Amino acid sequence: MAMNGNRAKRAALRDEILAKARDRVLLMGILNVTPDSFSDGGRFVDPREALRQAEVLDAEGADIIDVGGESTRPSAAQVSAEDELGRVLAVIPGLCASYSRIVSIDTYKASVAHAAAEAGAVIVNDVWGMTRDTGMAQAVAETASAVVVTYNRGTVQADINIADDMRDFFANAFAMAAAAGIPREHVILDPGVGFGKTYEQNFTVLARLDVLMDFDVPVLVGVSRKSFIGRLLDREVDDRLIGTLAAGLASVQRGARILRVHDVGAHADALKMLKAIDEAG
């Protein structure tokens, strides 16, 4: 689809999902079309398998499908923009063929974000918070995408006040967004668990989601199967669902509006139970 041809559709889907995030907790289903992601690497590199997995995520209750073409796990090999584009553009048009499906592109490269938007994606999920590629803010603005800005310092520093630093990082991110012409209401914040943080700081940023609430935009939390859960509970990657659910529900109780997860069905059930208890009170 050409950008002019799908702009109205994308704008409607973008506004719809941002409005929903104000109304209830959303689930972003992870769809990695990579050979080396830490949990599901290699499972969905075939576009047909990726599309089938998207249908599974839809059926389980995913509100957003987040497509990634490059692993962001520690020590993962870097992927060229051309290779990343080849992976994600093999699946995004098919995913976006359904008018109601909302697709996010998990990338820190401006060229990939731009091309994914042309193919129908409405959210850019940048784990570097628009700091790695200097063209990213412009790409988000030009495509009128929503953007997930992740708190990622790049380097670990154990002696900082992580809550204060996170506040400063996001204040700078909003200034960058405004300068590029990205409306504030198109921004989603992510505390960046697992990115540029010590083991202990991963827990602190989750405990201090109140810092993000002050910005009055939706907050996304992505902890699914991550190593800090495995370290605390002494569990391998495929045995971290309980820890993931606990961290996700604790985040929701602190104000998170979007959970980025592998196990959509389990999270949908947990959120339904939490909602029933809250409403009974």
CATH class label: Alpha Beta
Number of self-contained structural domains: 1
- Radius of gyration equals 17 Å
Percentage of residues in strands: 5-15%
Average pLDDT rating = 93
What is the CATH topology assignment? TIM Barrel
Outline: globular
* CATH architecture label: Alpha-Beta Barrel
Overview of this protein structure:
- The chain has one domain (3-280): TIM Barrel (Alpha-Beta Barrel).
- Helix content is 47%, strand content 12%.
- The chain has 12 helices and 8 strands.
- Strands 6-5-4-3-2-1-8-7 form an 8-stranded parallel β-sheet.
- The radius of gyration is 17 Å and the shape is globular.
- The termini are far apart.
Strand and helix layout:
Layout: H1 3-23, E1 26-32, H2 47-60, E2 64-68, H3 81-88, H4 92-95, E3 103-106, H5 110-118, E4 123-126, H6 136-143, E5 146-150, H7 162-180, E6 187-190, H8 199-207, H9 210-213, E7 220-221, H10 227-233, H11 241-253, E8 258-261, H12 264-280
Parallel strand pairs: 1-2, 1-8, 2-3, 3-4, 4-5, 5-6, 7-8
Helix pairs in contact: 3-5, 5-6, 11-12
Task: Throw out a few tags for this protein.
281 residues, 12 helices, eight-stranded parallel β-sheet
